[in-house]
Amino acid sequence: MSFGGHHTRKRFGQHWLTDAGVLERIVAAAELQPGERVLEVGPGRGALTERLLATGLAELHAIELDRDLVAGLRRQFAGDERFQLLEGDVLRLDLPPADKVVANIPYNITGPLLERLVGRLDRPLASPYQRLVLLVQQEVGERIRAVAGSSAFSALSVRLQLLAHCRSVCAVPPRCFQPPPKVMSEVIVLDPLPPSERLEPQLAGRLEGLLKRCFASRRKMLRNSLAGLWPEEELSERAQRAGVSLRQRPQDLSPQRWVELTRQLCPTPQSPRVSSPPIPEQTAHG
Known about the structure:
286 residues, Rossmann fold, Helicase, Ruva Protein, domain 3, two-stranded antiparallel sheet
């Protein structure tokens, strides 16, 4: 091996996935086809990299922040022209073109990295990846794929489910890593929606405003969270047209119900409905 003497760095959130079974399931979940280009975030010591290269893919672009690991990776895969390694911060580098993403996400940058790889409701990626296979903290995976009404359902659930089809591959206990983390992990798959199935940007922006407003106080009924947006009677009527009761709480509404509520409460200027008052800016995220 090419990593003798290297020690894990806590500031990078390094936990090496060593379980062969989980590594194989990650590769299988990617469903790689000949000729595809893959972006691997956080190759570490190359355990997953080696398996990805064995699939016959066309190109593997890897991004690694730890310069000591970069040196070892370059030595280990020097003989494979398909392997291209970038040293630096995945949140700052220009990402190389790729069809699919495989990433062992450092848990301390999960939110920003998801936004970088999937986009935002109001600013989705112009050319989305075909598939992302991500190793994340299980709590985050549960929130991403949660169903409305469950305790894990959050604004993140709404955002990601309106940007991609989400599913779980497998749970990953701490013993599968070296050193073991203190939390459970999970492999998830995100299949981003094509541009034709996304929300129009104006509607997406208004939905984002509603999510911030309501999930900032997720224990409150919508009657309280939305107070002042419209006169009380009209607010109730508009919510009813969206199939929503103002006695519900934010986590009770499915992503599509949130879209319908936004259409009713925040009609766009092109809509035949009367324009709504603006939604105040909120700083808290669900």
